[in-house]
Amino acid sequence: MAHRILPLRCHAFLCEGAHVAALKSRMTTAQTADQSPTTPEAGVAYQQCIHPSCAQTYPVHRVLTACPSCGSLLDVRYRWPATTPTDFRLFELRSGTRGPREAAGTAATRAALDFSGVWRFRDLMPFYEDETQIVTVGEGRTNLQRADHVACELGFDLENGGRLFLQYEGFNPSGSFKDNGMCAAFTHARMVNAQRVACASTGNTSASLAMYAALTGLACYVFIGEGKIAYGKLSQALEYGARTLQVAGDFDACLARVREIADHRPELGVYLMNSVNPFRLEGQKSIMYRILEGLDWEPPDWIIVPGGNLGNSSAFGKAFAELKELGLIKKIPRLAVANAHGARTLDRMVNELGMTWRAPGREPGDFDHAAVDAEFQRMDKAGERAHTVASAIEINRPVNLSKCLRALDTMHGVVRSFDDETIVEHKALVGRWGFGCEPASGASVAAARQLVREGLIAPTDTVACVLTGHLLKDPDVTVGYHTGIDTKGVQAIMSERGQHAEPTGAHSNRPIRVADELEAIIEAMRIKL
After folding, report:
1. Least confident of 11-25, 110-124, 394-408, 472-486
2. Surface-to-core class of residue 26, CB atoms within 10 Å of its CB (0-12 exposed, 13-18 middle, 19+ buried)
3. What pTM, to 2 d.p., does this model score?
4. Contact 260, 518 (CB under 8 A)
5. How far is the C-alpha of 87 from the C-alpha of 282, rounded, in Å?
6. 440: which of 94, 306, 349, 414 fits an S-S bond (Cβ 3.0–4.6 Å)?
7. How remote is the C-alpha of 284 from its chain's centroid?
8. Phi-psi group of 89: left, alpha or beta (phi > 0 → left; psi -120 to 50 → alpha; rest → beta)
9. Where is pLDDT greater, at 322 or 247?
10. Which of 202, 447, 199, 425 is nearest to 313 (CA)?
11. Alpha carbon 123 to chain centroid distance?
12. Digit-coded pLDDT (tens) for 515-529
């Protein structure tokens, strides 16, 4: 794709003076210090099954990955206390908090919590018992970038108010959006005194998990599929000291094994950190809060996000439903989820099988579970496996499918999928104008173009595309695009020839190859009870 420098007349810059004056006015009338309590009211938070015919509730201290009664996913729910903010002024003020900082991984000070782009909004996720339980390393200090050059390329009408924003989650400490959720899950792990944490990963989850585990002193186990992880991401898990098991299978097989260990081998004491953990998704809600913050608390017309395990889209829907319930917003934006063609389970179920959260003649949430199971069985029988250059969304069995259906219902959402060439071309388009991102992020920008062409997104709409991770998360794809060199292919050939280099570093932490067998995996974990 040839890129051209856009003429200046394509840009219709907003007048910033009125916005700044309004913000200063609000800040002078708002309280000058954070007066929110350090401890939420007792009984504020609980876990609840999302299936409407079950809806069982459980205390927050119970470690669950599914409803014990019916097997459905769980939400973290709240009986909102009287101290819950009724406007956004408190969150604005917190970003300027000053004060001492404690060592990373220890109890955070108020200044450290307010610095975090997640915990600055802690009143909207009050599942913790005391602020001293909260884990933070300064995650969420991300940027909502107005991307006028890209907007012009995609067909937006800037002169008449059209706006494209890129929510760049690559600024997180581990380089991806996962830190938003991981700090919340580690907070819950601290609440329940977990000693071991684990995840299945296509890369970003393992990097974030390993980073937080290293800082909090927890034993860490990462399950990755054979050849199914980008080296930029794998390097982080190894560097942070995670025990990395390279399982003979794909992501779906890895997740099934780690869930089996967490759910059915309690004597091993492994706390699961994948997005089936409802506390993970609580932290990921904050991405939407920061988008609102960047838009002066006015919701955009559209949110677009890549779809893999569907944790982000699920969290976004929950965030906006809660904000509407609390009266903090009047309008909920529309949602678009972008799949890769090689991992288009959601696209197929929504657009071909007609799957919806509100099935005709049923209660909201009572969707056709039998049809979902039948589709998964068909995929297994046909030997279908996810395959895409966008490794972050290379997932065939998204565990948050039901929550994503709910988010699509809440946000009047749509689903589209794109081939690898289109994804990489739009990744390069983002990079051409100064915001390098991982391949999966290109899918959200491709979706913006497609929906403008379809007329669903008006050229005058305001759209926020979530860029999930940093450019260097998968440098092999970038190098291959610009040079034609297939670095992964070269490494595969060397492996076939038996040309393995042995690590020589004093702190080397090589992945452990293991069969997709439960007992072999547990033995490789080397857990000492």
Report:
1. 11-25
2. middle
3. 0.89
4. yes
5. 20
6. 306
7. 6
8. alpha
9. 322
10. 447
11. 20
12. 999 999 999 999 987
